[in-house]
Amino acid sequence: MKLITRRRAVFALTTALLVVLAGGAYAYFTTSGAGTGTAAVGSSSAVTLHATVTGSLYPGSSSPVSFTVDNPSSGSQRVGTISLSSITVDASHSECSTVITGGNPDFTMPAVAVNHSFPNGNGQAVTATGTLTMNETGVSQDKCQGATLTLHLTDN
């Protein structure tokens, strides 16, 4: 009989211990809380646009224009539309007319839709290309012969 009593005592003690442990495992307090965190947002940097005109221009002709982008920022930056804002010429051709607006401009380049984000880095090729045209203005454009043009571009 002692054996049965001892077994019952061990069983009872084990059961009681399991109940206490189980109760402790499922006991918790409910509460609500709040907190704060911080993050830093970077700033944009101006990208640099480069254009390369293939071939020479003559009155009434056009040449393809390819572009690259330099992005000095740590993050990606989006280039929307590349537009021609002005043209300058080398010093020895200062009398060459480089008008790009109005009814009869010397040069035109339609805006080029890029709509692409560029990661940090230099010399990144732009898929979209442009077309630079030296328009036939009806007046002598001899003062532009042999001129080196510098295209000034903007990104909107």
Walk me through the structure:
The protein has 156 residues and is of the alpha+beta class. The chain has a domain at 48-137 and 147-155: Sandwich (Immunoglobulin-like), CATH 2.60.40. The protein is built from one helix and eight strands. The strands form two sheets. Strands 1, 2, 4, 6 and 7 form a five-stranded antiparallel beta sheet that branches. Strands 5-3-8 form a three-stranded antiparallel beta sheet, with no helix packed on it. A hairpin with a 7-residue loop joins β1 and β2. The longest helix has 25 residues, at 2-26. The protein is rod-shaped, with a radius of gyration of 37 Å. The mean pLDDT is 90.
